[in-house]
Design brief:
InterPro entries: Amidohydro_3, D-aminoacylase_insert_dom_sf, Metal-dep_hydrolase_composite, Metal_Hydrolase, Metallo-dep_Hydrolases_sf
Pfam family, one: Amidohydro_3
Number of domains: 3
Keywords: Signal
Strand content: 15-25%
Organism: Sphingosinicella xenopeptidilytica
CATH class of the largest domain: Alpha Beta
Helix content: 25-40%
Protein name: Amidohydrolase family protein
Shape: globular
Number of helices: 19
Structural class: alpha/beta
Distance between the termini: 62 Å
CATH architecture of the largest domain: Alpha-Beta Barrel
Length: 545
């Protein structure tokens, strides 16, 4: 019986092995099925590591593999031979979604797709409360979106909801109600708290108020993002305030669109760099974002005026400005409001000064382009306000509210703790008409890849890509974005390192970049052949750790 049992067992074992062999053979014969295969490219994985030749397999909106493909069947293949393949770029500071309400149909966001951006962070600069952010997200979800979006909880937004009159310090009870809204925003997936302390009403908040609200994001692993209090006239002190808040609360802090603007701050970016690096040496997570252009916000000249019978942030029309300036009884009051704000409120002249303003577009007077307003006024022997009034009488004059010296850009952009971001608004007929459109909205990422990395050789391409992908993803808590690795979301950009470049200018701020071959959002091709495909694969991307 023992011998028989052994023989039966041996027979069964042979049969089992035969079945297993057949199964293995069948598995080996069955190729892996993919939605999309990006074949033959040089892969930059977003970590800053040197590139390597590999194929990227995509299925179900996720990356399946990053390796040389074998035995796969793909519904579609993109030939990336001779091209770079990278994670989709992440814009950690974008104003593009603010245009959603006025856009009919899907919000494709072609200007971002055209430069390889697949994820943007809405509600910077203290923008939106959780209630308004949910409304915006709902509109995006209903209309469909071309890129992913995440959001900050906006300090100015919650201040306006909690305080009936915001031009004062908040009471302890109001601060606690605001803190509850911060927590609400973090529960919905926001990445952290943003402030716009230069703007109304954030400019009236005390440091204690902001610190208390920033502390509310700490249990969620959130970050603090600050448009600092007075970057025009007190740049170093303002950036120090944000750094010290991050240190005091013990959370990551980002200095938004860091730069040295105007004649006052020219050559001083090194002072801020020293402060940041000292804090980082002590173990504090202080970072910055930067757009690579020599001018800050653009405005039509007439939009710089503040009328005494309105708030400093009220949008005025060209006709209103001209009528007010033409009335001798009102002109002096307009000057006072324009230079000092209404009831100590916001005005651009008060915030950055005439010395920060440079003419960037004057179709009827092209000889004015490049002139600094303060220096031009001295040259003409007139008061800067009178020069501004003269320019307002001319058609289509636009100025940048923050001239930035190229040497300061170069000194900052090479720092490993500086990520790329656009601070860009949506470029359309309305933004162009009001002079809001800036080339950074359409060309920040490609300008870094082409001009600063390839042409000036300030850092290798893998470092440029890290500044746009793995670094911002880690800072924002987007654990499933920013790297090309199996299991992560399939946000991918394919581009030509030899030709990638920004084409956007102050005269044509919406011009698409060159060299972007294909952009993939959540596994769907959203941009190719120089234009969006119309696919709306974008999603709301919450903070994940």
């Amino acid at each position: 019986m023992k011998i028989l049992a052994f023989n039966v067992s041996k027979t069964c074992l042979k049969a089992a092995c035969a079945v297993a062999a057949l199964a293995l053979s069948a598995c080996a014969a069955e190729p892996e099925r993919l939605d999309l295969l990006v074949r033959g490219g040089l892969v930059y994985d977003g970590t800053g590591s040197p590139p390597r030749p590999a194929d990227v397999g995509i299925a179900g909106g996720q990356i399946r593999f990053v390796k040389k493909a074998s035995r796969v069947v793909a519904a579609r293949t993109i030939d990336a031979s001779g091209l770079a393949v990278a994670p989709g770029f992440i814009d950690a500071h974008s104003h593009a979604p603010e245009a959603v309400e006025r856009i009919e149909g899907p919000f494709i966001d072609a200007q971002d797709l055209s430069q390889g951006v697949t994820t943007i962070m809405a509600s910077p600069d203290g923008g939106l409360s959780p209630r308004v952010m949910r409304q915006l997200s709902g509109m995006l979800a209903t209309k469909g979106m071309g890129v992913n979006h995440g959001c900050y909880v906006g300090h100015n937004g919650i201040r306006e909801e909690v305080m009936p009159e915001q031009r004062r310090a908040a009471t302890p009870e109001e601060i606690e109600r605001m803190a509850a809204l911060v927590r609400e925003g973090m529960e919905m997936g926001c990445v952290g708290l943003s402030t716009g302390l230069m703007y109304d009403p954030g400019m009236f908040a005390t440091e204690a108020e902001v610190q208390t609200l920033a502390a509310a994001v700490k249990p969620y692993g959130g970050t603090y993002d600050s448009h600092t209090r007075d970057p025009g006239f007190h740049m170093v002190e303002s950036e120090r305030e944000a750094i010290e808040l991050g240190k005091a609360v013990g959370i990551p802090a980002k200095l938004a669109h860091l730069k040295a603007t105007g004649l006052t701050n020219k050559g001083r970016i090194g002072e801020v760099i020293t402060m940041v690096e000292a804090a980082r040496a002590q173990g504090f997570d202080i970072v910055a974002d930067q757009y690579p252009f020599d001018g800050a916000t653009v405005r039509a000249v007439y939009d710089l005026f503040v009328l005494p019978d309105g708030r400093g942030d009220r949008k005025v029309t060209e006709a209103e400005v001209r009528a007010a300036l033409a009335d001798p009884a009102r002109r002096a009051a307009v000057r006072e409001a324009t230079e000092h704000g209404v009831d100590k409120g916001f005005s651009w002249i008060k915030a950055v000064g005439y010395g920060s303003m440079r003419i960037v577009d004057a179709p009827e007077n092209p000889d004015l382009v490049g002139e600094n307003l303060e220096l031009l006024a001295k040259k003409r022997g007139v008061a800067p306000f009178d020069l501004l009034a003269d320019l307002a009488a001319r058609n289509a004059v636009r100025v940048t509210l923050g001239t930035i010296d190229e040497a300061d850009i170069l000194e900052l952009i090479v720092k490993p703790w500086v990520m790329v971001a656009s601070d860009g608004a949506y470029v359309d007929a309305q933004s162009l008409a009001r002079g809001y459109a800036h080339p950074r909205a359409s060309g920040s990422f490609t300008r870094v890849l082409g001009h600063y990395s390839r042409d000036l050789k300030l850092f290798p391409l893998e470092e440029a890509i890290r500044k746009m992908t793995g670094f911002p993803a880690a800072h924002l808590g987007l654990a499933d974005r920013g790297r090309l690795m199996p299991g992560l979301a399939a946000d991918v950009v394919v581009f030509d390192p030899a030709t990638v470049a920004a084409r956007a200018t102050y005269a044509d701020p919406g011009a698409f970049s060159t060299g972007i071959v294909a952009v993939i959002v959540n596994g769907k091709v959203a941009f190719e052949n120089g234009k969006p495909t119309g696919v709306t694969a974008g999603q709301f991307v919450p903070r994940k750790r």
